[in-house]
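Support request, please re-run this one:
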Amino acid sequence: MIHHPHRHRPARRGLVTLVVIWAIAIASVIVAATQVLAFRQATLGREVLARTQARWAARAGVETMIAIMEWHTANPDTADPMALTRDLESNALGEVETGTWDIRHFIDGQEWAGPLDEHAKLNINNITKATLLNIPNMTQDVADSIMDWRDTDHEVQGFGAERDYYRNRSLHYEPRDGDFRSIAELELVAGAWPQYVRGEDWNLNGRLDPNEDDGKNSPPDDRADGKLDAGWSGLLTATSRPSRLSPSGQERLDLRKTNAEDLAGRTGVDSQQAAALLSYARGGTANMGQILATPLSQLSSSRRGAQPSNPAANTGSTGRSSVGRTGATGASNTGIKNLTPEQLRAVMNECMLSDTRTSGNSTAGKLNLNTTSRAVLRDVLQLDTRFADAILSRRVAKNEGITSLADLVDLPGATQAQLLTIAQVADVSSSVYTIDSRGRSMGSSAEAEMVVVVDRSEVPAKILEYREP
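Re-run finished. Output below.
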């Protein structure tokens, strides 16, 4: 019998082949899994890179806006208060090597390039109750509750709400008894529901987002008309601030504290006019509105206890005749000439009155007549229709807009009462802007958004609020 020592080798070869095939299969699975993982990591890496590029593009837009604001603060143009707005608009779209930025806002339902001027809205910290009640959907009880929220006492105003109201409802907060710090804080006030405060601007960024223009497909409910109805947040702000600087870039002269020589040097008034202004200013109820609305000769007569020399002051007219404006022959029996238009413009731009009982909250900014909306002027302030429309027409008639409140005295409907109203709440320049910068990565759909509130009244500018929605 012949012995074959290698009879079982074919079986061993088959086993080896099977092991090799399994090893190859496992290796293939590992390689495939590694490739999938690597692809996912690469995709995530590209997404992270794209978002980072978008974020830095948005940041570049914010930095550009702040740089422009600081330049204009350091280099003011007294004859062109709209120069800053134009520069901000012209740089609202821009790009860096890896992305682009887009800065825009809505005011009065219309979209504009550039940051939102917070001075285009009335400040809730110094608005009167009567004016509050002119706002759509505002009721007596909510207006009273707003007054209670910001006043320092604990006495309930009318139908308002003080500490006990919030305590009894276990709301875990009480009225601030001080200034509102943001418009979102308004929603904490009794009866101030978010749908009234925010309208369609659900994230309070001042621009129209896709979910705010799609009807009822996603919150909030909106009209899907391509316009942003921002509710009360489109009319009110809590962040506008007064600037201690005049349009010329100098410290404003406080008429209660300055002297006649400095006043004359800054505004061009003569010694008698300077003395009359200072005498009036040191009265207990003096305000800039009266200086705007009343000829200086009448202010001087009134300060001496005499009756106004022009009865037009009590009939709705400003009393500013052509003689009174030129000042050449506009002297009254007091011997004091009325301010010329140039002098009045300088006084309104360069001077202020502090610590008066009628000045309101000194930390709240005034309305900018060059940027505010028709709705604020006509519906909320309820100015005479002719006067409000004349203001809007005057500011678009010239590239530089309205350069001083003195530009208003010859407008149709500019009665003494109307001028007093506007002087109490308005000015022609702004300090605080909200920059909503949306960055997009170059070659990608990745986006990032930054909302930054900036006070540019001093250099360097101050960031009041920063968020990334």
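The first strand starts at residue 93 and ends at 96. Residues 305-329, 356-360 have pLDDT under 50 and may be disordered.
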